[in-house]
């Protein structure tokens, strides 16, 4: 009887954490796209990583996820750069879950200096740096992105809008417990060292921006996918949120043509298992 109670308690803990027993048993990774670049990753051991959380004011985020509590437990937040459509809800989500935000060193420096988050919740690391904040078997490496990273801030004392140093933009290579590698590219244009990232890190799954104007357009994203990164899987992101982001998954898939990469053109809120 005591053993049965322990099993029930363990099962309830798993359910409350938002992890299905099937996911754990199969060593699967769950990836949920929430619009723009916002992504929730649940690792095979049940750790939850949220990347670029712009949710509450994101027009593409499903209504239920505009309440940050709907994400459930979160173990780590990653931010690729300082623009509000990537950083906006990171401080509130960090405070809600009492977890750190990891991101570009310059951005986190401004976040601490402005009092947005304390230093233990705004952790600095730089390109080629690898961190293991949620266990040594989950490795997160910061890599180059071709973009900008200003931090917009409304000064509570004056009520005026200010712009502060946001460091340099990055992408993240996330290597999970089972060796599966996810490359969240954040916002980026094309740059030659994407070939190095593809050959050295060998990502299994890429989350690749395709909207154009501020990031790669679909034809550029297709070129990067086919000739530089060569992943097994791709999820197009960062499109359709504003009028400028005109690129579509259909254009991306058409430009890819025949390729071994399997593309998942999912809707915000959808989940995939790998």
CATH topology: Metallo-beta-lactamase, Chain A
What is the global morphology? globular
**CATH homologous superfamily caption:** Ribonuclease Z/Hydroxyacylglutathione hydrolase-like
**Count the helices. How many?**
8
Task: Explain what you see.
The protein has 274 residues and is α/β, with parallel strands linked by helices. It has a single domain (23-273), classed as Ribonuclease Z/Hydroxyacylglutathione hydrolase-like (Metallo-beta-lactamase, Chain A). It is 26% helix and 23% strand. The chain has eight helices and 16 strands. The strands form three sheets. A seven-stranded mixed beta sheet has the order 6-5-4-3-2-1-16, with helices on one face. It has a seven-stranded mixed beta sheet with strand order 7-8-11-12-13-14-15. Helix 6 links the parallel strand 12 and strand 13 (205-209). Helix 7 (218-229) crosses helix 8. It starts with a helix and ends with a strand.
Descriptive tags:
seven-stranded mixed sheet; 274 residues; single chain; 26% helix; alpha/beta; Metallo-beta-lactamase, Chain A
In short:
Helices cover 26% and strands 23% of the residues. By secondary structure, it is α/β, with parallel strands linked by helices. The protein is globular, with a radius of gyration of 18 Å.
Please write out the topology.
Blueprint: H1 2-16, H2 21-26, E1 30-33, E2 39-42, E3 48-51, E4 76-78, H3 84-87, H4 90-97, E5 101-104, H5 105-113, E6 122-125, E7 130-131, E8 139-144, E9 151-154, E10 161-164, E11 170-175, E12 181-184, H6 194-201, E13 205-209, H7 218-229, E14 233-237, H8 249-256, E15 262-263, E16 271-273
Parallel strand pairs: 3-4, 4-5, 5-6, 12-13, 13-14, 14-15
Antiparallel strand pairs: 1-2, 1-16, 2-3, 7-8, 8-11, 9-10, 11-12
């Amino acid at each position: 009887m005591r053993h049965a109670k322990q099993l029930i308690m363990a099962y309830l803990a798993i359910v409350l954490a938002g992890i299905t027993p099937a996911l754990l048993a199969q060593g699967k990774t769950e990836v949920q796209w929430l619009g723009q670049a916002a992504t929730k990753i649940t690792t095979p051991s049940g750790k939850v990583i949220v990347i670029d959380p712009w949710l509450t004011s994101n027009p593409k985020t499903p209504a239920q996820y505009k309440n940050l509590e709907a994400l459930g437990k979160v173990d780590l937040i990653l931010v690729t750069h300082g623009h509000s459509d990537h950083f906006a809800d990171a401080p509130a989500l960090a405070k809600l879950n009492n977890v750190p935000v990891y991101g570009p060193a310059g951005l986190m420096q401004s976040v601490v200096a402005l009092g947005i988050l304390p230093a233990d919740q705004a952790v600095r690391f730089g390109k080629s740096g690898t961190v293991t904040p949620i266990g040594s078997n989950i490795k997160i490496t910061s890599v180059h992105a071709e973009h900008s990273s200003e931090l917009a801030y409304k000064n509570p004392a004056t009520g005026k809008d200010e712009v502060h140093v946001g460091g340099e933009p990055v992408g993240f290579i996330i290597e999970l417990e089972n060796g599966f590698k996810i490359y969240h590219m954040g916002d980026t244009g094309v740059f030659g060292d994407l070939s190095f990232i593809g050959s050295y890190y060998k990502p299994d799954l890429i989350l690749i921006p395709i909207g154009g104007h501020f990031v790669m357009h679909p034809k550029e994203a297709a070129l990067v996918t086919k000739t530089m990164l060569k992943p097994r899987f791709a999820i197009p992101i960062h499109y359709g949120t504003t009028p400028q982001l005109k690129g579509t998954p259909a254009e991306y898939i058409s430009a890819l043509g025949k390729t071994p990469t399997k593309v998942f053109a999912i809707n915000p809120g959808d989940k995939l298992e790998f």
